[in-house]
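Review this today:
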Amino acid sequence: MADNTATSTAELSQLRVLAHPLRLRMVSLLTGAPFSATELARELGITQAAASYHLRQLHHAGVITLLEVRAKRGGRERVYAYAPPAAQAHGSAAPSEGYQLFAEAIAAEIRRRSHEVFSGSPRIGVDAELWVEPSDWQQAVDGVRAASLRLHERARRPRAAGTIRVSMSAALFQMTTPDTVPDE
């Protein structure tokens, strides 16, 4: 039981730290390549101090990994990366409060990114509240997870030759069942 509580607390901490829109953007960039605070600050148009602060928060919550500490101009520069867990099932045991914060951050990020849609590019927009067979649900979850992992594994540094900038956001979850079903 203590193990599940520790897992839930860690997941809640990670979801809360990811609920900040800037941190969500940082994690997205850190998927494609390792970055230092200076490099992320330049990419995101923020101060190095702000980038350092948010990177420390992400690292402390266990969302990102410190890859190396290197000497730079008499100081030390930390380089971070993000690798999504292979069997990630966000929210499987996380308290709903953390997942709600995460969902709100994703919604804000979708709004921000939607202003940068490349004209004529293929787009998929889906919203659904459905009743399906459990096996169909599991197949959908597995498919979205596989697509997400493939994109994360194949991600490159921003503006790398031969790459295009894309957006993928997904929030899949099983909903509670109402106590009563309306008469049809």
Summary: The chain has a mean pLDDT of 84. The radius of gyration is 19 Å.
